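Running this now, will post back.
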Amino acid sequence: MVTEGKIFTSNNSLFEGTEYGLVSQVGGVANLTAESISITGLNQASIMALAQGTVNIGGENTNTVSISSNSRGIEARQLNYKEYTGPSYVKVKASNTIIIKAKVGIHTQQNSEKDVPPANKTTVNLEAPNIAIDASENAIQALSNSEVSISGNTTINAKDSAIYARGFSTVNINVDNLNSTTVLNGDISFGTPNEQGGDSHQSGKLLDAYVTVNFNGEDSSWTGRSYQTYKDNGKDVITSEIGNNKEYHGQVSGLKLAFSNGGTWNSTGDSFSNVLSLNSGNIKLSGKSTLHTNDFNITGDNNSLTFGDKSNVNGVINDKGTLYVNGDTSGFTGTLNVIGKAAIGLTPEEAAETFKSSEGSVLLVKAGSTLNGNTIVGANAAGTNDKTNALSVLSDGTLAIIATEDYVAGTPLVSVGAAST
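Update: finished.
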């Protein structure tokens, strides 16, 4: 181990009686390299960087890094301590595997919540072909302009939230690494205990943060929901609606999720995403849940949107690829712009022949279906949520109704409140 600056471990008098692993602070730099590295902090953080502290763990010649703690696995914080008031850094790199097992996997914190985070900010960076984080509470906590960046085949299991963020912090998972898989088991939440007119809990008040996660490949998935939580008159508020929060706490606008090449979201309840994209990806909505979205774009040849019992998408879906919609669509109140191709109530096999022989914007509907929400078909489809139970087929759009073996003769081919061509 090569060290520079100040490095403290559990046997240092500064932390007498505590159980840290490796701590670097007040401008210290800790560099630790070996073929295999294991760091344990029992009741405190395994790796801690405070007050302009820097910790570099592993590198190209490090095969495995294992980090475990009954508290926090990695903690990086900016502190107002004498002249050491700048950001802190932790970087962990391995040629094979990084494993973190802790109550809280990663905690980052800076002392500001500016909507444009400073370029030089407290950061935790993980880079390895395989990364696993197991947390008995939150896996990633990114607060107040800090940043967590992860690159590699990533699996995160959290009892509470896989990602918990606020104060215009940043969390990036495989943003620049589309060749790696991402598996999240746990929620994505934006929250603060800060109360308007009450206890600040020594916490920032703003909910917004920049969270971007790519789920690429059939082995990529997210099982969980996304929501915002804050206190209002002493009561906990949990919401997934967009544009419905109190002015004091702000509004989340930075959640971006992408599912591609078979990546799947198994939603477990009411959720939202400011920017949501499917490129041959899949979304499965749980029963009686609503997905709120501002910017929902679909590309690629094989996308699926499966509605649970009485579930809903509240927002505009712009389908420029091929989309298969199944399940209980009776609760749908959003808008579907079919610019590419879409099939409602049909499997890819049932739709294949008609799609193959049709060009341009095509909507296939299983005979006997009821169309809900607002559906527009055509290259210039640009409907908004100003209509319900309406179907519009533009001059360059095609509507085809497919009678499968279970169609009952004499029943309406398609039921819709209003239709125009």
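Confidence is low (pLDDT under 50) at residues 1-18. More later if anyone needs it.
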